[in-house]
Amino acid sequence: MNDAVFQRCIHPQCGATVAVDDVSFRCPKCGGLLDVAYDWNRLKPPRSLQDFQSKWSRRTDPLCFSGVWRFHDLLPFAPPERVLTIGEGQTILQRSDAVAAFAGMEPGRLFLQYEGLNPSGSFKDNGMTAAFTHARLVGARRAACASTGNTSASLAVYCSATGLMRAIIFIGSGKISYGKLAQALDHGALTIQIAGDFDDAMARVREIATKLGIYLVNSINPFRLEGQKTIMFRVLEALGWETPDWIVVPGGNLGNVSSFGKAFQELLELGLIPRAPRLAVINAFGANTFFQLYERFGVRWNDGSPDQQKVEGYYRSLDLENIRAATLASAIEINRPVNLNKALRALDKCGGVVREVTDQEMLDAKAKVGAGGLGCEPASAATVAGLKRLRLDGTIQKDERVGCILTGHQLKDPTATVAYHSSDPKTFQEVLGQRGVRRASFANRAVQVPNELDEIIKAIELFA
Ligand code: F0G
């Protein structure tokens, strides 16, 4: 098994390989990102994606039940008996005609992949089960992450549910929403609030993980991204193994888009799909490094040699002008995405695009997603807002089949939601107005009535 699975530098010119049990998650030769790599000739990849369908009838087996591990054959870095799962990945792909109409799509063409149904309420659990499986293989006892909230919530859940490791989480002071902070505290993680933002916390945690030998579960960990590939496998599964035309995903640290690109690349190599969908990454306007680099400065994968000078120059200009990431979608409030190069590769392989959306657009889209039956957090709604833009600029056609990834649950960030729907101008102003949101066009305001039967009946007759 061991030789058939290894880690490999993503840059083909370097191509250095590292053993599967190495936990530095950095190329020893060039410092680049690593992939989990497979010698498929020595493994047993499925002959057809339909092979996975029989798993559901065997769902008393935790490896068949898990929405991640029922695809074990496509992420076979650990033997099945070493897999650590808490039943993640029971998520749904829902057709949403109401949201389609809002985004400018024809009925039956928009599907929402609802990752909020995971045990910790976000897509992170897909990756965390894979990271924990690897952590157990290497005997780790402590795990750390920097987080805008969801990675930390997921880490805290997995630590408390499995008892495998002690969780140490780094968050920017005042930078994560209440729902996520509540999870970290309730599940017993050591929670370190540092004066700074996510980008500061990320730099620190890498330093500390190396110094103290703590297992890092940020998406720089390639094993986490192996688990996140299964989000795409489930989208395909729900579409009867047909490839959609587009996948739209929010961009923060760019782990998801990287793992989706790898998933499709591998499925193509294995001859399991005839074509890959195109990928659209949506940045928040106030945290738009990927948009700037890709769409404005034209930085490309360039066969593994992206223009590093342009990237460094951009980061220097952010520092010089003291620009920090700033968006209500705190999940993606990130200006230095660690997976930038992998994301460039993914867009290269899948013909990708990047767009940015304002907080206003995101919150309006979020209200529409909520009214359509699924609740998501602001960062997730960036996908629907982004799709609307991609329709308007003619990139996506109204009859193309699109999957938007709703990455996190509505209850992760109740503050923004309540403020949007609030009838109290002060609440709106404090939470949203100060951040540039002007209107709540799709607000569902609570109706204030005196505690009198006639008045209450009148209100019901008037509004319902
Ligand atoms: N959506 C949500 C709800 C997230 O929590 C994140 C990232 C993203 C999108 C962006 O995903 O990093 O793969 O591009 N949250 C991280 C965290 C950074 O710490 O929880 P990405």
The H/E string reads EEEHEHEHEHEHEHEHEHEHHHEHHEHHH
Shape: globular
Tally of separate helices: 16
Binned strand content: 5-15%
Characterize the biggest β-sheet.
Answer: 6 strands, mixed
The value of Rg in angstroms is 22 Å
Helix content: 25-40%
Distance between the termini: 63 Å
Number of strands: 13
Based on secondary structure, the structural category is alpha/beta
Which ligands accompany this protein? ligand F0G
As laid out across the biggest beta sheet, the strand order is 4-5-13-10-11-12
Contiguous runs where pLDDT drops below 50 for at least 5 residues: none
Q: Residue-averaged pLDDT, rounded?
A: 97
Task: Characterize the structure shown.
This protein is an alpha/beta fold. Helices cover 39% and strands 14% of the residues. It has 16 helices and 13 strands. The chain has a 6-stranded mixed sheet, with helices on both faces. It has a 4-stranded parallel sheet with strand order 8-7-6-9, sandwiched between helices. A 3-stranded antiparallel sheet has the order 2-1-3. Strand 7 (166-172), helix 5 (178-186) and strand 8 (190-194) form a beta-alpha-beta unit. The mean pLDDT is 97. Ligand F0G is lined by residues 122, 147-151, 219, 250-256, 331-332, 377, 379-380, 407-408.
